[in-house]
Amino acid sequence: xxxxxxxxxxxxxxxxxxxxxxxxxxxxxxxxxxxxxxxxxxxxxxxxxxxxxxxxxxxxxxxxxxxxxxxxxxxxxxxxxxxxxxxxxxxxxxxxxxxxxxxxxxxxxxxxxxxxxxxxxxxxxxxxxxxxxxxxxxxxxxxxxxxxxxxxxxxxxxxxxxxxxxxxxxxxxxxxxxxxxxxxxxxxxxxxxx
Length: 194
Description:
By secondary structure, the chain is of the alpha/beta class.
């Protein structure tokens, strides 16, 4: 797989776009988001992170005629049987209210204030005339209540990665980025690009 020139990031999520643009910076790609291009967000109809990443990457590639990269990611909480999982963004509703989504995780966990969980990131790269490639990264940790920190985005303020005492929401962007699920998926993508 060889990527050069312009690449569409199949996302409208500004936090996710920022992380991915930084991870791709060393490759000298002209990265533009689907949101910037006014591309529609396809309905996520698959039942796995990988399935939804492929769906989004291929839709952005078809709509733009350019190579596209998509990430489908979320929080999987053991006490909730892996929920919210692929529905992580949907738990935040139309308004993307992640404070409400975190409260729902806590409420549905019941009495347990801390439980094991993981962030999962599936990346899909679709390029015209090539087979779509997929990569998956996982970071293990615990969810905690109440949420702590005002950095990051999504469920970051309630997720403590293994080996750490702070939530992703308490870490600076520079501290958090190398240990994320997205960075781990990108390690695999980078290996494939080399």
